[in-house]
Amino acid sequence: MSERIAVYPGSFDPVTYGHLDILQRGLSVFDQIIIAVLNNSSKNPLFTVEERVDLLKKATAHLDSVTVDSFEGLLVDYVQKKKVGIVLRGLRAISDFEYELQIAAINKSLNPKIETCFMMTSNHYSFLSSSMVKEAAMYGGSVHELVPEPVEKALVHKFGKRSSV
Ligand code: ADP
Questions:
Q1: CB 137 within 8 A of CB 156
Q2: Taking the model in full, what pTM does it have?
Q3: How many whole angstroms from its chain centre is CA 97?
Q4: What cofactor is this protein dependent on (predicted)?
């Protein structure tokens, strides 16, 4: 039987435990997952694509079936180049649904052979987003419970540490 491979695309600016939860659960459905970091300078990311890839590699080092890559341009072109038929995305709230529906519909019209597969967030991470993590870290809040250690360190490096008054 051929291997079931999915591409998990996103900004991952930076990776959170919410992303990792989807990844971990995705591995119960797919044999291999390629995390594809979107090189999206237009979104004005906090971390460069190289930094985001590096943090993802550190955060997934224990997962043999996961590889980390980056891409520019259309997701459907990247997915086709990798000879993969499935895109994995996570769904949090209703607000995610509308956005994800649009992307999935556009991708489907660009390449009808590619399917998008959604996994629901775990309740525990339903509130968690990269932007929330950045906001918290920027104002010196602890993000220890929200992101893996290398990400926490990288955020402290970017924003500095709050003095323990
Ligand atoms: P994008 O800019 O493409 O939305 P993100 O890095 O924000 O990139 O998200 C990548 C994917 O991970 C998206 O499908 C998003 O819905 C999902 N995701 C992000 N955070 C969570 C979370 N806490 N629980 C479940 N899925 C999540």
A1: yes
A2: 0.93
A3: 16
A4: Mg(2+)
